[in-house]
Amino acid sequence: MELSEKIPQYKRLYEILRRHIIEGVYNEGDLLPSENELCRLHGVTRPTVRQALSNLANDGYISRHQGKGSIVHLLPREIGILSVAGTTSAVGDRNLKTKIIVKPVIVPWDDDFMFPLSDLEKESGCVNMERLRLLDDSPIFYDISYIANINLPRITSRKFENRSLFRILREHYRIEIKGGEQRIKAIPASVKTGRYLQLKAGEPVLHLERKMETSSPGLFLYSSIFCNTKKYSIFGRF
Amino acid sequence: MELSEKIPQYKRLYEILRRHIIEGVYNEGDLLPSENELCRLHGVTRPTVRQALSNLANDGYISRHQGKGSIVHLLPREIGILSVAGTTSAVGDRNLKTKIIVKPVIVPWDDDFMFPLSDLEKESGCVNMERLRLLDDSPIFYDISYIANINLPRITSRKFENRSLFRILREHYRIEIKGGEQRIKAIPASVKTGRYLQLKAGEPVLHLERKMETSSPGLFLYSSIFCNTKKYSIFGRF
DNA sequence: TTAAATAGCTTGTATTTACAAGTGAAAAGC
DNA sequence: GCTTTTCACTTGTAAATACAAGCTATTTAA
User: Fold this and answer.
1) How far is the CA of B31 from the C1' of D29 (A)?
2) How many C-beta atoms lie closer than 10 Å to residue A97's C-beta?
3) How distant is C1' of C14 from CA of A11, in Å?
4) Per-residue model confidence (pLDDT) at position B5
């Protein structure tokens, strides 16, 4: 009976770094030692280190940046027993319709915006749009997007019908979503969201608040999504 | 202006396979071509193929099984615009208390269980336990777990206080959680869940239903989790 | 007939090597 | 003083190779 339980080196390193992060050896925003440094420190090769880092990034403990390093993130683990991660993979187009409620307009940022904003974002103003997504003619998602108006010429005059905002950003501005953070809650529907999602006020609604990092430094895409999960659940694998 | 947009080979392969999966070239449960076959087919090396497959697995399009191959999963994409994936990372122990409501007992399976069950599972009976998790003395999670009684001697007499079910399984039975699927919904609290979570009946509750695959073939761990998200959200990075 | 051993497939882990591409600070030139 | 270039360092991509470990079907032995 082998009790020594030999575990793979990349898992061992993953656990070491994870523990260091949880126990506060690093602060929010700190850089992890570089990959080559970790190689030397732990006597393994770079692919092994990279596999450990890749898993840490997947689980939200770090985010990696080419030319810069791996940045530590502390917050999520405070509460989340779930540590939910998501990908913005497109939904199949069939049966899913998109209805624009508010075409892209430039507005000032809300004073109590759901995420803290940088000074640059505050100065630049906010491009706002609201959309409703229907599956088989039932409203499922009510989606409010915000993005700082930084290097996005003519954004308010583009046609968004049936095209994802992600695609517009990628095709016209060469901006990709690289990652982000999100909060998930169950809340009672307001009169407004209830009207859009065909629910009575007070009925449960799934609420997501997301902050997405883009390939353009300092530019973030925010969205507040209300989901009617009465008929359909959010489905995922992990 | 380079419009050719040279993308990495592993991303190219990822997109090809992803498209094949979405467009129905494979059916649910089908095996993808083996890694070596994909190498030959697309003229790349195994690490490149593995990176593409790793991303597909991360996004829930496939699950990989040593000695067997990569199995295709179709379902999630049908509805989910979010394609939520999660990891079962442990929560920090401080301030989090666990209260056993129903100690592990062996019961028959419910006739309309939330997931379909195999014959072996039905015959084996069900180990059931219910727990409440409190953060700073506020109830946050009400967790009902189910697992088939297969090769789990003395499971009903183990002490579970302040120990995760995952840890019991790992330490006493050498069983690890390898992945799974989940559904997320916002529902009104029933009288019972409301009582446990200190909510009024009808108030919104986040509901998760999870089926987790274990390292023991054919053995799955199910759990139904009700979350009080009034004070705390589920937080995640992606 | 049945059960155990084996062979050949699969993915998992790990090393080594090489170059590309992004970042930021120091050095050079104006 | 200011801008530009360079350089050193970071992660990203990719190949070639080797062996370990898990699964399955066939073969072999009882």
Assistant:
1) 34
2) 14
3) 13
4) 60
User: Do both B218 and B119 map to the same domain?
Assistant: yes
Q: Name the nt closest to A67 by C-alpha to C1'.
A: D10
For the record, the structure tokens of B147 come out as 């697992």
Residue bearing the bigger pLDDT, B177 or B30: B30
Asked if residues A214 and A178 have their Cβ atoms less than 8 Å apart, the reply is: yes
- Whether the CB-CB separation of B87 and A18 falls below 8 Å is answered with no
Q: Which nucleotide is nearest to B39 (CA to C1')?
A: D15
Within an 8 Å CB–CB cutoff, is residue B185 touching chain A? yes
How many angstroms separate the CA of residue B94 from the nearest CA in chain A? 9
Convert the pLDDT of each residue in B112-153 to its tens digit. 999 999 888 998 889 999 989 887 788 988 989 999 988 777
What does pTM read for this prediction? Answer: 0.86
Phi then psi for B32, rounded to 5 degrees?
-70, 160
Q: Are residues B131 and B15 part of one domain? A: no
Tokens of A180: 């982000």
- Comparing alpha-carbon positions, the chain A residue that sits nearest to B60 is A237
Q: Which of B141, B140, B122, B117 is nearest to B130 (CA)?
A: B141
A64 touches strand D (CB under 7 A): yes
Residue type, B108: P
Cα Dmax for chain A: 69
- Is the model more confident about A128 or about B166? A128
Give the other-Cβ count within 10 Å of A25's Cβ: 11
Give per-residue pLDDT as tens, B83-123: 343 333 334 444 667 788 888 889 999 999 999 998 889 98
| Residue B79, min C-alpha distance to chain A (Å) | 7
User: Which chain D nucleotides are covered by protein, judged by CB under 7 A?
Assistant: 9-18, 21-24
Q: Could you read off the pLDDT of B165-199 as tens digits, one per residue?
A: 777 787 788 788 888 888 889 999 999 999 999 99
Number of domains in chain B: 2
pLDDT band at A96 (very low <50, low <70, confident <90, very high): low
Contact B79/A234, CB-based, under 8 Å? yes
- Asked if strand D contacts B68 at the CB level, meaning under 7 A, the answer is yes
Percentage of residues in chain B having pLDDT higher than 70: 86
Judge: B183–A237 Cβ closer than 8 Å, yes or no. Answer: no
Residue ranges making up the domain that contains B39: 9-78
Domain end point (choices B78, B110, B139):
B78
Q: Are residues A106 and A220 located together in one domain of the fold?
A: yes
Cβ of B22 within 8 Å of Cβ of A92? The answer is: yes
